[in-house]
Design brief:
about 40% helix; about 375 residues; alpha/beta; elongated; about 10% strand
Length: about 375
């Protein structure tokens, strides 16, 4: 797989496939590194943690695409690749003669994946996109928060991860079809459309009712009570979600609520949600969140204490769970999230650190194109490998 991606959406897609064993050659340039992702923010690492996370298990190849020889070399690599992934703005690779039409003619089996913000066709193709803009335009910002809140985005670059996941599924489907037809294809992914797909039920409900859907905050249409309730301590919370009447009775017993027929059904609890929230908060705010969680879980009520990122990563007293140390000399002693799948028997390789800039250039040119040392050195002297 040849990886022309940058920042997050594209690198996340190719990292998922690298985790499954794909040989991913990441095409970079020392003249224009993937900034700010290769920038050092952690003094214990030689690159930012975010870069290491989304570019592990890949090989780094540096090619100067501003030279004709560099573009030809990149085309040769694409000519023997199964998949090419890029997430530049629409038309960027066409302008350097590395577009789908040319490369698919050289390699009819190539699966060519473009994953721009708004796709490569239609009136929005030339719009500049970033995570926050895409969340606003897709309607996602008005699907989060409560009615009185300003638009609220889902942090942590939600649209990039959603786009990367959709692209990964598309590549697997394309390769499956190619196994039968012998022919590759182009996948034109719009990250905007990926975001829209995540609020499909709200869009359908709005289309049916002809009304703007209300923002529910932490509540749900079919569960009550549901919310994140304040616990003892500064800014401490516990999420509680009552799905059934049986769970409600269990919660009421734990919290010592007096019987009230108004709350016997989910419709009644939805109608009196504010009142129930006040009753629950009066009970939770006097207790530490682990106690709230433990008492309710023991009674069969879905409840989880709110944890911050530093509480999710394990310390020496906790099991590693989805975390593993990354091998390689550039990752220091840092735990990283692994592929969140339990496979039996296990087939996933241990996570390997992202390569230094250009670290694997020679290896890829030898193994993919059969070049010898003299040819590689000639390219380096001509500043093609830069």
């Amino acid at each position: 797989m040849i990886d022309f991606t940058h920042v997050l959406a594209g690198p996340f897609c190719t990292r998922l496939l690298a985790d499954f064993g794909a040989d991913v050659a990441r095409i970079e340039s020392s003249k224009h590194p993937d900034s700010p992702w290769r920038t050092v923010k952690d003094p214990n690492l030689d690159r930012d943690v975010a870069y290491l996370v989304v570019n592990r298990n890949k090989r780094s190849v540096t090619i100067n695409l501003k030279t004709e020889a560099g573009r030809e070399l990149a085309a040769r690599i694409a000519g023997v690749a199964d998949v090419l992934v890029e997430n530049f703005s629409a038309g960027v690779l066409d302008r350097v003669d590395l577009g789908y039409e040319r490369l698919s003619a050289m390699n009819p089996r190539l699966v060519y994946v473009s994953m721009s913000g708004y796709g490569h066709s239609g009136p929005r193709r030339d719009w500049t996109s970033m995570n926050s803009n895409l969340q606003a335009y897709s309607g996602l910002m008005m699907s989060t928060g409560s009615e009185s809140d300003p638009p609220i985005s889902i942090s942590n670059s939600w649209m990039d991860y959603v786009g990367g996941l959709h692209a990964c599924f598309g590549i697997i489907q394309a390769l499956s079809r190619r196994a039968v037809s012998g022919v590759g294809m182009r996948l034109d992914l719009s990250q905007f459309e990926c975001g829209v797909s995540t609020i499909g039920p709200a869009l359908m409900a709005s289309a049916a009712s002809r009304e703007r859907p209300r923002r529910a905050g932490n509540r749900a249409a079919g569960a009550a009570p549901q919310g994140c309730y304040r616990c003892a301590g500064k800014d401490e919370w516990c999420a509680i979600s009552v799905q059934t009447d049986e769970q409600w009775r269990a919660l009421a017993q734990v919290m010592g609520f007096a019987p009230d027929s108004r709350f016997d059904s989910v419709l009644g609890r939805l109608k009196h949600h504010d009142e129930i929230d006040r009753l629950i908060t009066a009970w939770t705010e006097t207790r530490d969140k682990p106690d709230v969680e433990g008492l309710l879980k023991a009674a069969g009520v879905p409840a989880e204490r709110m944890r911050r990122a530093n509480e999710v990563a394990p310390d020496s007293s906790q099991p590693a769970g989805p975390f593993k140390p990354m091998s390689g000399p550039h990752a220091a002693d840092v735990l990283f999230t692994t592929m969140p799948l339990g496979l039996s028997p296990a087939t996933l390789a241990e996570p390997r650190s992202a390569g230094r800039l250009g670290e694997h250039t020679d290896d890829v040119l030898r193994s993919w194109l059969g070049m010898d040392n003299s040819e590689i050195e000639a390219l380096r002297r001509a500043e093609v490998l830069a």
